[in-house]
Amino acid sequence: MSAPVSRVTVLEDRAAVTRAGTFELAAGQHRITIERVSPVLVDKTLIAIATGARVLDVRCERYLAPWNDPAAESTELASELRRERTALLARRELESARSSAATAEANALSELASAALADLATGATRGRQVSTPAVRLAELDTLEAAARARRVEAELASAELARQISRLDQRIARAEAEAGEEAARLHVDILVETAGAIALAIDYVTPGAAWRPYHRAVLDRPAGRVQWQTTACVWQATGEDWVDAALTFSLERPSLGVEPPDLVDDELRTRRRPDQVTVEVREQEHHTAGLGSAGAPEVPGIDDGGLGLVLSAAAATVRADGTPHRIPVGGFAAAAQVSLVAIPLRSSWVHVRARIVNPGPLPLLAGPVDLVMASGYVGRTEIDFVGPNEKFYVGFGPESELRVHRTETKDRDDAGLLGGWNTTTTRVAVRVSNLGASPRTITVTERIPISEVEQVNVQLGAPDAYLLSTEHPEEARETTQITARTLDDRGMVSWSVELPPHGRRAVTLEYKVKSQKHVAGV
Q1: Are the beta carbons of 98 and 150 closer than 8 angstroms?
Q2: pTM of the entire predicted model
Q3: Any residues with CB less than 8 A from the CB of 396 and at least 6 apart, and which?
Q4: 431 - beta bridge partners?
Q5: Do the beta carbons of residue 441 and residue 499 sit within 8 Å?
Q6: Quick check: 90 and 110 in contact, CB under 8 A?
């Protein structure tokens, strides 16, 4: 009897499948057989529930299901045809190598003939006579013609082998179809007390299915709005198709262990204060509260913030072919604060950035995001876990009409014999150009190091400590320097630069890193 897949709950690495059907049965004991279920289902998860009857037993039987009549004679074996195909591939590679060798030989002979003609011309101008030049040139022509003939023969043989391989592929596909496929069926024994309609539901878990969140952001830049769509990218190779099934995407982890980790000793040791302090410079990535939590750059699992979310989708069809299917599970339209940002230390481009607030009741899961603007698809990025009513940034690529150029110089003044501080002075100049006909406002961000030890001191110079007019007076007459800036507690220095059409602006930064004489590593 027929009990199609009615509901599927897809987990991170498996799927919980529910089959349902209604049957008219007479009173008594019956065995219901359901064909073509997933052969990889987990038997211990198999459960059957009948309304109006009592389930006596349910089990899965696996078998080899032929596509054609089992009594029909199979004309060819797929294994033998695959071996024949491997031999044909080897012969085609050999013919391809012969063609390449003949081509190289013909080209070399052609170059040799050209060089011989050039030598004959040079000798004629100088009065030298060469015996039987026609015979030698004829030999070269004969050898070149033979090489080209071998190349043509090899190409024709390679083309014929390619046609044979194509025909053989069709024979392999036909032989595989005749050989059959692995399949399974369910046997459900039920006892019906009163004749009538019996509703049967069968649940089981099967591997070979997975899903990951995938987002799409469409930015309307003039209106300052973004259309956000969250989809579940699901693929499955369970051996059974899910046709018009209600899909649910769950982040619950039923197989996750619940035992607490073992505690280990944390030993504390003392050591003598060293005569020399060694420090190191490291890159520190800052995460601001309210701008998404720190997530993994890759998504082997799904970062759901530990919430165990369950997302529902409309009925859809997912074939068991292993190809990805993107099914919408949510979305929103919200205002976006679009700005132009430049971080010259990282990139020489000015990037379009949108500040978005997640207005929905559910969080946004970590995953890739397709970026779309008025010009079409512009690229792909990733987001971390974003909670409800939480703001986050999405970059939409560089602005083609803006350019950034950064220069940095360092001067070091070592301490003398009587002590003192080693001083390294760093000067940074950032020049921004607008090639377009519209005014633009850009936020330029630089950084200064932050010291965590008292032996190293970082001093930020005044906004006008480094002026381009002092070192580059000619450039200063053409480029206006911006000195108004802000500094946060993370060492980020920012300028708001207003660029006129076809205009140029510049910002500068000077800071000093002072370290005591006995400090190493700076």
Answers
A1: yes
A2: 0.64
A3: 219, 351, 352, 353, 354, 371, 373, 378, 379
A4: 405, 506
A5: yes
A6: no
